Amino acid sequence: MPGVGKTTLASKVYGKQIVSGHFDCCAWVPVSRSYKSEEILRTMLKQFYQSGLREFTTPPEIDAMGQNSLVHKLKEFLTQNRYLIVFDDVWTTSFWEFIKHALTRDGKDSRVIITTRSEQVAVFCKESPWDHIHWLQPLPEEKAWDLFCMKAFQRDFEGHCPPELKDVSLRIVQKCEGLPLAIVAISGILSMKNKVASEWKRFYDSLGSELQMRPGLTSISKIVLLSYYDLPYYIKSCFLYFGIVPEDYSINCGRLIRLWIAEGFIEEQRGKTLEEVAEEYLTEIIHRSLVQVSSKKPDGRVKTCRVHDVVREIILSKSMELNFCQVLGAENSSFDDITRRLSIHMDGNLDNVLERAKKSWIRSIFLFRVAKLPEKPLMSTLARNFMLLKTLDLEDAPLVQIHKEVGNLFHLRYLIVRRTKVKVIPKSIGKLHNLQTLDLKYCLVRELPSQISRLHKLRHLLAYNYDYGNFSLDSIKGVKMQGGIGCLKELQKLGLVEANYDAINLFKELKNLQKLRKLGISNFRTKNCRDLFNSIQNMKHLKFLAICSISEHEILDLDLIFVPPESLERLILCGRLKKLPSWIAQLRTLQDLHLHWSSLVDDPLHGLQALPNLLMLSLNEVCYGEQLSFKVGWFPKLKRLNLRSQSGLRSVIIEEGALTLLEELIIGPCQQLQEVPSGIRHLRKLTTLSFYLMPTKFLNRMLPDKGQDHWIVERIPTVQFGFWLQGLRYKVCAPGEFQNYASDLQFKDQ
Fold first, then answer.
1. N or C: fewer beta carbons within 10 Å in the chain?
2. Residue 748, pLDDT above cutoff 60
3. What pTM does this model have?
């Protein structure tokens, strides 16, 4: 990313005599965004002639040469000499496409170094196995702290931080997140300030404005904004959108993409959905090193992402300048009337903020970490003061009711009340004819009004709840629909919908939803199998299918009459199976498979092990057997495995040569598992091993020093235990910390 030290590192290497002395000639060529080809070639030639170890005479005619003559002259010179050249800050692949024709690969050990912010450029320039990409990382915490102290306290304290400044200094260094440019620039300013904690705290609190106004810090903004200005016009707003979330906040990419679509940022492209285009936009921003990937899905796609704290400060300043978005916190509760988006991050009451915004031009409102809502009904206030509202994001807010006034927000395209205590969706929801996303996941809504069928532009209807503390089929909750769902022909995602409420008509109407990519059905019965198959057989784009049985006693006979779409990538089956459906093994595109409460008589692993593209497998109470065996060559591409069994499973055998690409293994709860699977030591790619709600006696086996099975897990980078403490507090920790909680464990007998 900008400021991470690419140019500094390259110049350190380039400037060392032990390096430059190895070559006959050297050149350092800065490449701007708007480079001129002839000037680049001319600069290279002049530097080569001037830097040569032997005496070279610079030809006087170089200044008058055209591009073809310069290329010819360069090739002629480089053919006879071993050279080192650095192209600093390359922005486009077209530069390398042009410049490589002027260089020679003649086996003389010449070297080319390129610095770039763009992953696309780096990959494009790698033309052979001998070309190496060095991904420069931010400084680790210890080195970042050392660099800060060396710069900030060199004059007064010989590079050591005084105790009274340590807390605020640590916060400043954490804000820099290992970015050398930010650390050096900020510590340089602080080195000239009085060494008083209150003054340093004021500097920290106003860092955003300091980055824009103080001469010593504007270099950071300029370098980041260069990347912003280089973005295509249609992506700039998408990048600025990262300013709405709090610092250190990783936003789910699906949520971000749906927001972009609701805002109208995404341009239609023939043959692609808006969601697919938006994902390409996000990939573009990530490849330009402006956004950091926080987590990935097993298939390698980005799951959550964030921006560096310093980059966020610059985004906020640019957003204020453009009236794009304003962030309100406890210390800043006033806003400009012409701002278009309002992101509220505060613990206090919102009454004053929302009442001051009468007849506002605001189009979007987001609540983050808001502890208390206004005493007046929120929807009434919003409908009265924010008539132009397009997006309303209330995820995690302390919301208990959506009032009927929500129907007056005629322009609303995006409504999210995920993880709130909302129980009822009012009938007035049917007035929101522009609504594209209705997100009710993990709230208490169990039935949707029939008026939902009027929302003909709806693309995402997400309604699903799961009680993670209850390991049974009853923990999965969907919503009842009252008919008319077949009118929602733009739907891309739907689930979970209960099948026991007028199931026959439900499946008839599902036939009309040909654009579905994701479908989830709960309260399913075997007698519905044929109806479901008839509904989805023409869904050519369906990638995700979840089927959850109505009870543990209902047997899902999915083998004979049910054939899923060939495009299926994710499959979730929750409920008892007579046998493993034979068609699962034929799903060549399947990447993610969940089998829960299947209660199979036979071990299902043999029927699944050859799936060619399976990346994730979750098995929960899948069979009655006491042993699961993973044999040599099985599951060749699997990256994540999750095993649960409350009863029955006593041992897991992993042979050497099985699960060769496994990166994450999650076990538990498995109350009868006797010992840590010794085959874990064969999993060379394993980076994360987690044990959840396992008996204390089992976990003690892996403790450092005294655990007899510690040798099995000691080389794995991340090992973690999850368990309940007194007062139903859930804790996740490393094995070394586990013994600290031994006296507070809720289930001492385990």
1. C
2. no
3. 0.84
